[in-house]
Design brief:
binds beta-D-fructofuranose; 10 helices; seven-stranded mixed sheet; alpha/beta; 2 domains; Rossmann fold
Length: 328
């Protein structure tokens, strides 16, 4: 009987620990831990719980976003952030939002995988009275508190313009797109077409879903079909790097221009310094801004519906000087 009790107890502990490993609390004050007041209380004196749903942690950019949120929240002992990772699974991310609502968090930050499927749970949370900050990838409609992100049309346009200035009229272009059910993928494509202004010809395009191995595979197909590729425009730096690896492995003498987006210091910017990429455009994570905005909302202040973050271009000419702001 005693042994049975011990086994049941052990099983219970395992179940509880497994539940906890999905989320990781950050920036919790020992003095205020456990207190969960309503969001209409003054920000300074109470503990607030923020639920953060990240669409995946398989890419360096998203790991950086969580690190930025954690670092910003750590400056405020009255904030506790519960991180959840959807592992690139839209249904799991929808459940995150519902779980945060049932847990009664004071605010939700979400960086959605896809626009359509996340629109409804976000709207339900918002209409139910929980403030929601949508970060980086937008959703449809306006049933959320605030959207924070850079202007992806502008970034795509700047990439298109840069490429147009560096190619001839007959240049062959490969476009490796980000997940086209996400708004940044759509915007980075539309802006690019506009910026290119009809110069060159896109001979191959594919959805590499933001993933380096997919980009590499798609580039293998492009290389098999075209002897002569002048430029690769990838919607993110992992995509551009995957294409670069494919060209290297194919042993092509002619190296196309490689252009990416994200410009993390340890990733895209380093690639430009090493001569792997010719240009990359910064896509800031917005982690710090999300926490700054959350604090205002929790203090009852009004915040703008959209906060647009600035982007920078990095090329071999300006990388040592820290790149240059994009203005267009
Ligand atoms: C990471 C990422 C970034 C990209 C962003 C767009 O998942 O693919 O590389 O800039 O998402 O939302």
């Amino acid at each position: 009987m005693l042994r049975l009790h011990a086994i049941v107890h052990l099983l219970l502990v395992i179940v509880i620990l497994a539940g906890c490993s999905q989320s990781e609390p950050a920036a919790k004050s020992a003095a205020t831990a456990g207190e969960k007041p309503k969001s209409d209380a003054p920000a300074a004196s109470k503990t607030f719980t923020i639920g953060m749903s990240q669409c995946n942690l398989g890419e360096p950019w998203r790991v950086q976003m969580n690190a930025d949120i954690k670092a910003a929240a750590a400056q405020h002992p009255n904030l506790e952030v519960i991180f959840k990772d959807a592992q690139n699974d839209t249904l799991r991310q929808r459940s995150h939002i519902e779980e945060f609502v049932s847990a009664g968090v004071n605010l939700i930050i979400v960086s959605p995988k896809e626009a359509e499927p996340l629109t409804e749970p976000i709207a339900n949370a918002f209409r139910g009275g929980i403030p929601v900050i949508v970060l980086d990838r937008a959703v449809r409609g306006d049933a959320f508190t605030c959207f924070i992100g850079a202007n992806n049309v502008q970034i795509g346009r700047a990439a298109g313009k840069w490429i147009a200035e560096h190619i001839g009229n007959d240049a062959k272009i490969v476009e490796l797109k980000g997940l086209m059910t996400s708004i940044p993928g759509q915007d980075r494509h539309n802006g690019f077409v506009e910026g290119l202004g009809g110069k060159g010809k896109v001979v191959f395009e594919a959805d590499m879903k933001w993933l380096e191995p997919e980009a590499r595979k798609e580039m293998d197909s492009a290389l098999a079909r075209f002897d002569d590729i002048d430029v690769v425009y990838a919607h993110n730096d992992p995509g551009a790097h995957g294409a670069y690896l494919a060209v290297q492995a194919a042993g092509r003498e002619k190296k196309p221009l490689f252009v990416g987006i994200d410009a993390l210091p340890q990733e895209g910017v380093a690639y430009v310094s090493q001569g792997i990429l010719n240009a990359t455009f910064q896509y800031p994570t917005g982690g710090q801004e999300a926490i700054d905005t959350a604090l205002k909302i929790l203090a009852g202040e009004k915040v703008p519906k959209t906060i647009t973050l600035k982007s920078r271009i990095f090329t071999k000419e300006n990388v040592a000087a820290g790149g240059a702001v994009i203005e267009n």
